[in-house]
Amino acid sequence: MSDPNAALKVLPAHTEHPRLFQANKFVYPVLSRRSRGISVGINLNPDKVCNFDCIYCQVDRRSAAVTRFVETERLLAEVEEVLELVSSGGLYRDERFTGVPGPLRRLNDIAFSGDGEPTTFRNIPSIVADVAAIKARRGLDAVKLVMITNASMFHRPGVQRALATLDANNGEIWAKLDAGTERYFQVVDRTTIPFERVLLNLRDAALLRPLVIQSLFMRVDGAGPPLDEVAAYSDRLNEILNAGGRLARIQVYTIARPPAESAATPLAPREVDAIAEEVSRRVGVPVESYYGASS
Ligand code: SF4
After folding, report:
1. How far apart are the CA of 190 and the centre of ligand 1, in A?
2. DSSP of 6-25, one letter per residue?
3. Would you call 27 exposed, middle or buried from its count of C-beta atoms within 10 A (0-12, 13-18, 19+)?
4. Residue 32, SS3?
5. Residues 40, 43, 49, CA angle at the centre, nearest 5°?
6. Ligand 1 lined by 116 (C-beta under 6 Å)
7. Range 16-43 average pLDDT
8. What is the CA(1)–ligand 1 centre distance, in A?
C-alpha cells in the first residue's frame, strides 16, 4: 500500500543532498523524505569507492574525492558539531535549510551512508560504537541510528558487531534489494558479489531483527521493471519471511537525483504506486512509496 505522506510536496532541500556541509569532510545534514525530517549523514566512503556500481547511483564520481581516508577524530567532532547545530536550531539559519517547514524541523536519525557502501569501512564496529556513545551522551534515545546498506557484507563478523550495536541503540537497517533475479540484479546493481550472497545476508540479518528493505525501481532504456521481475522480487522477500525473518517495512522509490547512467530514468508516481501495491499484495508487509524529484 502506498503511503499518503509520500505525496507531500517535494521541497528543494529534499532533492539536494550534497555530502559536503560547510567545512565538514564526513558529516552532513539533509532533509530526508524517507526520514520525514532531518537526517545527519555520516560518509564512511569519502574515496567514493563502492562494491556495487548501480546504474542509478547518485554519487558524482566525475569529480575528485575531497579526501580518501576517514579521520576518526575529525569525523566524531563533526558529528558533535552537526548534532549541536540541529538541536540549537542554528541549522535553519543555513540558506539550504531556512525553508524547511516547522513539522519537518525534527532530527529523525543519524545515518551511516555516503559515497559508497558503509559496511566496507574496515573500522565499522568501532565507529558505530563511538557514534552510538555520542547519541546516548546527548540524550538522543529517540533518534534512530540507521545503516543504509547494500547488505553485501553482513556475513563479516565486524559488520555483525556493528549491526548488534545498532540494535542496542534504537537502530534500523535500511537494506537494498532492487531485483528478484540474478540477471536483473546485474543489470541494475552491477557487482561481482553474487545475488545469492546478498539474499543470504538479508535472510540472516532479518532473523535477528526486523529489516527495512529499500528498493529502487526505474526505467532502463525506457522500459520499467518487467512484471515477472516484480513477482520474483516479491518471492525473494517471501522467502525471507518464510525462513522466519522479519521485515519492518518496504520502501519502494525511484530516481530523484541525476543517476550514474542516462539510460536510468524515473518512474511516474502512478507506476511507483502500482509496484508498491503489487508488492504489498504479494508480501503483506507495509510498503511506502517515494516519487521522483518532479512529483
Ligand atoms: S550501493 Fe549505493 S553507493 Fe554503491 S553504487 Fe549502489 S547506489 Fe551507489
Report:
1. 10
2. GGSPPPHHHH---S--TT-S
3. buried
4. strand
5. 155
6. yes
7. 85
8. 26
Query: Cell digits for 201?
Result: 545476508
Q: Which domains does the chain have, with CATH numbers?
A: 4-290 (3.20.20.70)
> Residue 162 and residue 180: Cα distance in Å, rounded?
27
Q: Which amino acid is at 36?
A: R
Whether the CB of 54 sits within 6 Å of ligand 1? yes
Q: What does the buried/exposed string (b/e) look like for 70-96 if buried means 16 or more CB atoms within 10 Å of the residue's CB?
A: beeeebbebbebbbebbeeeebbeeeb
pTM higher than 0.85: yes
Lowest mean pLDDT among 2-16, 31-45, 201-215: 2-16
Helix axes 269-283, 227-242, angle to 10 degrees: 40
Give how far Cα 205 sits from Cα of 156, 164, 172, Å.
12, 10, 11
* Shortest-distance atom of ligand 1 to CA 216: 7
Please check the confidence at residue 117 and state whether its pLDDT lies above 60: yes
Q: Residue 202 has which C-alpha cell?
A: 538479508
Length of the chain: 295
Q: Is the pLDDT of residue 256 over 60?
A: yes
Work out the pLDDT band at 6, boundaries 50, 70, 90: very low
* Grid cell locating 282: 504479494
Rounded CA gap, 294 and 101, in Å? 19
Q: What is the distance in A from the centroid of ligand 1 to the CA of 55?
A: 9
Residue 116 phi/psi, 5-degree rounding, is: -175, -165
Of 12-16, 37-41, 45-49, 121-125, the one with minimum mean pLDDT is: 12-16
What is the tens place of the pLDDT at every residue in 101-115? 999 999 999 999 889
What does the alpha-carbon distance between residue 113 and residue 120 come to, in Å, rounded to a whole number? 11
